[in-house]
Protein: Dienelactone hydrolase family protein
Amino acid sequence: MSALVGWDEGRHTDPGTGVVHTTYRRGTGPGVVVVSEIPGITPAVVAFAEEVVEAGFTVVLPHLFGDVPSAAGPGAAVRTLARVCVNREFNKLRLRETSPVATWLRSLARTLHAELGGPGVGALGMCFTGGFALAMMVDDSVVAPVLAQPSLPFAIGRARGADLNLSPEDLDVVKRRAAAGCAVLGLRYVDDPAVGTRFDTLTDELGDAFVRVELPGWKHSTLTADRQQEAVDRVLAFFRDALL
Structure:
């Protein structure tokens, strides 16, 4: 647990479904939910979350999969993928369908906003969870959604590579909120095949409300393993503008 020294462990229960997940929290100021990538809450994920804390925010890390803290590397990723692929909270392949875990994440965001106040909370997902921030935007409490290399559904074929991991009803809400002024920040390496063409879908659906940060190259994890300072700076500025 050395990577999470100084973080307070808790649990959040969605009162509507009874679903419970462990959380780790640190900081003061407006709330930001940072949802880790596969294989889980790695030291690199914690390091990024610490940067958000230092920028003046209360960060909550939900534990949805993997060990705590999780090892990095392909072995840990394969072990975690084997577990999540049979977990019904996550939609891995279906088109035009929101992952069920979004309901719990929205509940977490509402609770955090009710406690901390302010204009709302930020939400950031990475890779496997990248699109979850968009799904959380269906709830009005989320006013700063960030999609870091969103990779669900897995980009197997053109249709899945373009899909946003949202039901038509949820997409309609997201589009209405975007049209009303809620911007969505997206980050990716421009040649990352895991993202597919969903950045183009987001531009088509949200127009100028979708802010694209596209880095050159074939790398993947914009904020962690393949971290670029430009990407981190853009995320922190986005949170400051929306939440402070």
About this structure: The chain has eight helices and eight strands. The radius of gyration is 16 Å. The chain has a mean pLDDT of 96.
